[in-house]
Amino acid sequence: MLQSVEGLLAITSRQAQGPSPSFERAHVFLAFMVIGQSGIIGRQALAARSGLKEGSIRTIIKKLREDGYARTNASGCYLTPEGKKVYESLMAKFTPLVLLPDSKLTVGAFQVGLAVRGGARAVQSGIEQRDSAIKSNAAGATTYVIKGGKFEIPGGSSDCEKDFPSKTWSALRREIKPRDGDAVIVCGARDETTAQLGALSAALTLI
């Protein structure tokens, strides 16, 4: 799975001559996930859902095609059989992003969450994930590890649901179904797309 992710994200480091593309690893990850979830999607819709300009989307799609992950036709962009294999491996490691309305678990007007399966072992203090999210222009991110069925903050609360009551915990349990050994990231930002990019940036530090 790690090799699949590295191969996919490597397209950000193989830049053609000329200005650097205005996207990062999390943008490629988000665009790829959106294509996989959609089945087939047009360039404008993909730009809107990934928060990138169409020029950057064209570059990402071009590189995905060159590497054999995607194809295009008159209806839009879709994953190849190889791309689908990578997408399935990613979905085995990362849960879909979920919007968390009215969440106060971190900072930011719009907050999203996801789980990284088995990611708890890679979490130290959670600062690395927060800093990575902030580099993607998020307001902040909080990382929880699941131990004994409870949400725990490394170096802090061992039972966040008890110590910080919120309806958001139920939403996280319902939507991402966290398991022991998972890391759960909640990221907040000024808008949903930036929160998604921040959450994915944070998640990528755990693989």
Protein architecture, described:
There is one protein chain. This protein is an alpha+beta fold. The protein has two domains: 2-91, Arc Repressor Mutant, subunit A, CATH 1.10.10; 94-204, 2-Layer Sandwich (Gyrase A, domain 2), CATH 3.30.1360. It has nine helices and seven strands. It has helices at 2-9, 25-38, 43-50, 54-66, 81-93, 127-135, 160-163, 167-176, 192-204, and strands at residues 70-73, 76-79, 98-99, 110-116, 140-147, 150-152, 183-189. The strands form two sheets. It has a five-stranded antiparallel beta sheet, with helices on both faces. Strand 5 and strand 6 (150-152) form a beta hairpin. The longest helix has 14 residues, at 25-38.
Number of strands: 7
Stretches where pLDDT falls below 50 for ≥5 residues? 16-22
CATH superfamily of the largest domain: GAD-like domain
Percent of residues in helical segments?
A: 40-55%
Structural class: alpha+beta
Tell me the series of helices and strands, N- to C-terminal: HHHHEEHEEHEEHHEH
